[in-house]
Amino acid sequence: MALSITTDYVTDKLSPKPYLVRIADAGFTHIHWGHHWGSDFIYSKWEIDQIKKWLKDFGLRLLDLHASASMEVMTKNANFSSEKEFLAKAFETGSVFAKMLSRERNRMSE
Do 17 and 60 sit in the same domain of this protein? Predict the structure, then answer.
């Protein structure tokens, strides 16, 4: 049975690297990815590649993860019935995720 420790045991902000080093140094082999969960943060391909490299370098394996809770939008107690409604509310509240999604869709439609 594999046991894991969450990567956000101190904070879910900034770089996860120092926490991954400490987790590996403490003898853990598996992690529960919780970094940046309290935001609209979305990892780019390059960030995902870096995280994979760190996990490999430190001898860690991903056991579970906690995706973004989208706090900027969800703290408004919104219940969305459509993507259009979600995006409208997200832009209204300044959601980073909605802006990134919109930019990505525009880029893909070019």
Answer: yes
Number of domains, the chain: 2
**pLDDT one-digit tens code per residue, 20-35:** 999 999 999 999 998 8
Q: Per-residue DSSP letters for the chain?
A: ---EEETTSS-SSS-SHHHHHHHHHTT--EEEE-TTTTS-----HHHHHHHHHHHHHTT-EEEEE-----HHHHTT----SSHHHHHHHHHHHT-HHHHHHHHHHHHHH-
pLDDT, tens only, 42-59: 777 888 889 899 999 999
Model-level pTM?
0.62
* 93 shares a domain with 41: no
Domain extent for 109: 77-110
